[in-house]
Amino acid sequence: MVGRKVTILGAGESGTGAALLAHAKGYEVFVSDFGKIKDSYKQELTQAGIAFEEGKHSDDKVLAASFIIKSPGISDKTDIIKKVNKKDIPVIDEIEFASRYTNAKIIAITGTNGKTTTTLLTYHLLKEAGLNVGLAGNVGASLAKQVIEDEYDYYVVELSSFQLDGTVYFKPFIGVLLNITPDHMDRYEYKLDKYADSKFQLVRNMDNGDHFIYFSDNPLIRERVEHRAIKAQLHPVSLTEPSGVRYANGEMCFADDFTVDIEGTALRGEHNAINMMAAVSAALLVGIDKENIRQSLKTFRNAPHRMEYIGTINHVNFINDSKATNVDAVKYALESFQEPLVWIAGGIDKGNDYSLIMETVNAKVKALVCLGKDNSRLRDAFHEQIISLLETNNMKDAVRSALNYAEAHDVVLLSPACASFDLFKNYEDRGEQFRQAVIELKEEFESKALKQ
């Protein structure tokens, strides 16, 4: 890369990691964050002797760079990026930068939904098999920070469309694309094709020695695979196709008559069958033993707030799926259960099309608890379908109300379909408050039982 002067925009995990790697490789580094930098990151930058600023972007310092590494959360519409583009300064992502300094094989995983689960599961399968593997991207530590020592043979990396937008030469050994459904439309001019094209940056530089695992039932993915000259070896997974890697009658079927019963794994639902088929396909490609894979699928524990069992009160199970911030994710969650559901949903609506889940809601949901400051779109969508509908802006009230609607062997499902920022810091905060409300209510019921 021409020039030895680099500006890092954004000093979170990825930005700080990129700054430390650039410094280690001899670049002159300046870090600029328009917000406040966490003390832990400031300490790392200070110890490395890297200049930084917070609460502003100083044009003279930022624009003096030969190239810029931008946090994926910074939109191209911000003033500083407009100024950068006007000066034709190259802008890349931390993942792009880090990948240039490692010879490790990268397994890169993306998709609108399911990428964290699939990334963590793939990492788990490789690690349990004894491979020397690191975890990076949107989960784990910064890839750039890990590449400074570069001690791993493999990196499993979760990638968003925003990160892929900042890639130029990035070339994974295995690329996984789980699904493409509408999300982040405001960043892509409300054009689904632009968002889909962003996801397909994953395969742009892959050649015939690389592998592309993809969910072939998704129309946007299938259409692009059929009409693009993808050089990588193709590995489709499907819920409907009779051949290839497929899921049928509760069983995942792979090559050489290798099958896995989903009931023998730690995950449930068709959406997790897709995630598992993708992860297992990646594990098989790097040579992991089939029996090792089968055993590791039993011991996997998913990240919090993703179809996470919290507890049981009066024979009613409470499930935390706070990460489900769009309709497609909620559809997967609703379809994972045979039991009647009391559904807690709501927050900041991102232009959801609730007609996509109307049939599933009609079939499975007995009551809806709307949790948000403005529940009008959710209420208007379902008030005719669901007779039992209640509105609240308090998590404790939502949990108690849900239990009141539920009967023995029902499931209370927090799967919001919306962003969390009206009532909570983020989806993790929302999920933690749900967990705490369930635990408190459970303790209250147990205490009453002891006194009787």
Automatic annotation (TrEMBL):
Keywords: ATP-binding, Cell cycle, Cell division, Cell shape, Cell wall biogenesis/degradation, Cytoplasm, Ligase, Nucleotide-binding, Peptidoglycan synthesis. It holds the Pfam family MurD_N. Residues 109-283 form the Mur ligase central domain. Belongs to the MurCDEF family. It catalyses: UDP-N-acetyl-alpha-D-muramoyl-L-alanine + D-glutamate + ATP = UDP-N-acetyl-alpha-D-muramoyl-L-alanyl-D-glutamate + ADP + phosphate + H(+). The lineage of its organism: Bacteria, Pseudomonadati, Bacteroidota, Cytophagia, Cytophagales. Its main location: cytoplasm. Pathway: Cell wall biogenesis; peptidoglycan biosynthesis. Coiled coil: none annotated. This is UDP-N-acetylmuramoylalanine--D-glutamate ligase. It is found in: Cytoplasm. Cell wall formation. Catalyzes the addition of glutamate to the nucleotide precursor UDP-N-acetylmuramoyl-L-alanine (UMA). One of its GO terms (molecular function) is tetrahydrofolylpolyglutamate synthase activity. GO terms for cellular component: cytoplasm.
